[in-house]
Amino acid sequence: MMKRLLIFLWVVCCVTALQGKTRKALYIVLDGIPADYIERVHPKNIFDIASKGGYARAYTGGEVGAYSQTPTISAIGYMNILTGTWMNKHNVNGNSNLNPNYNYWSLFRIAKNQNKDFKTALFSSWTDNRTVLIGEGKPETDHLKIDYVCDGYELDKNRFPAKKDDLIFLILTQLYAKKPLLVSVRMLLI
Predict the structure, then answer these.
(1) Most buried pick, 68, 130, 145, 182, via CB within 10 A?
(2) Is 32 exposed, middle or buried (0-12, 13-18, 19+ CB in 10 A)?
(3) In the beta sheet, which residues pair with residue 29?
(4) pLDDT (0 to 100) of residue 64
(5) Cα–Cα distances in Å, from 41 out to 7, 33, 47, 66?
(6) Nearest 5°: CA angle at 80, between 107 and 82?
C-alpha cells in the first residue's frame, strides 16, 4: 500500500432543487482526512448531503508499480479527480512548479462547454486550484470562467493567520455558509 495515505472523500450529490427540477452535482474533496475516519466519526452534514445522492471514496493514488502510480499529494489528486486522468497525462506532479496539460479538460471546462448554461462554483482555500489547476481565464482553457468563486484564503494572513492544527475550512464555512452551489471544496489542515 501507499506510505502516505491521502484519501479523498468524494461526495457526488445529485439532488432535485426545492423550487424546481434542476439537478446539481456537488463534489466535496476533503484533503488529508482518511476516509475511514470520516466513516467512523460519521459527520452529520456530510452524510445528510450524501443521503440525497451518494458517497464514494475516491482513489487517486493509481496502481503501485504501474503507469498510473501517483504520489498522494494534494494538487496531483485534485487533477486526477478534475480531469479523470492520471499524473502522466495531466502533467501535475507536485504542489509547486505546476504546469498542467490543459488538453485534458477539467469537470468545470466540460460543464461550461455544454449546450445548457451550467453554473459552476469553487470554494477553496488555495487560489492555484482555480488559476492554475483549472486554468480559469487562460487561453489554453478557452478563457474558462467559474461563476462563483470563494478562494485565496491562504493569502489573507490578517483574517486567517496560520495557527498550529488550525482548520481554515471551519472558519471559512462560518463566513460563507450562505453562498450558492458549491462544486469543489478543499479542506486544508495547517
Answers:
(1) 130
(2) middle
(3) 10, 186
(4) 84
(5) 15, 11, 11, 33
(6) 15
Mean pLDDT of 123-144: 93
105, 157, 106, 97: which is closest to 128 by C-alpha? Answer: 97
Q: What is the pLDDT of residues 58-87, one digit of tens each?
A: 777 788 888 888 888 889 988 998 999 999
Kindly state the DSSP code that residue 186 receives in the 8-state scheme: B
Q: Which of 124, 83, 86, 118 is nearest to 103 (CA)?
A: 83
Alpha helices in 23-167 (DSSP H): 35-41, 44-51, 74-83, 87-90, 107-112, 128
User: How many residues can be counted in the chain?
Assistant: 190
Dihedral angle computed from the Cα positions of residues 79, 150, 44 and 28, in that order, rounded to the nearest 10 degrees: -10
| Average confidence score pLDDT of the chain | 75
Q: How far apart are CA 60 and CA 39, in angstroms?
A: 18
Percent of the chain with pLDDT over 70: 73
The residues near 74 (Cβ < 8 Å, ≥ 6 apart) are: 6, 31, 32, 95, 126, 186
Cβ–Cβ under 8 Å, residues 74 and 61: no
Q: Give mean pLDDT, residues 104-117.
A: 92
